[in-house]
Amino acid sequence: MGPDCYCDEVIPGKIEVEVLAQTENTLAFRPPLPGFGTDHVIVIPTRHVSSLLDLDDDLALELLATVKTVAAQAVDQHGGCQVLTTLGSEQHNRHLHWHVAVGGESPVS
Ligand SMILES: [Zn+2]
What we know:
HIT-like_sf, Histidine triad (HIT) family protein, alpha+beta, HIT-like, HIT family, subunit A, 5 strands, five-stranded antiparallel beta sheet, binds zinc ion, catalytic activity
């Protein structure tokens, strides 16, 4: 499932990120190297959770509220965005993370 730069670097503050929103147990930030679309925000729980499938209900609500906060900012500023999380073989970092991305490649829908 790949590395965990969130527990290793972001949460302990070893790399500097632009924080957009924060709650007791969640963090939303712009990654230092944007990789997805023209504006890319990552939302994570600040304690280790492997994926959406391991997320407990209380933290799910708190995390989704933070996703909603940054998604609303993206819609206000850019008119729209994608919100997604990856699982299994498509998850390249073994810490649950949500992407809120503007202008990224759209999935077939
Ligand atoms: Zn982790």
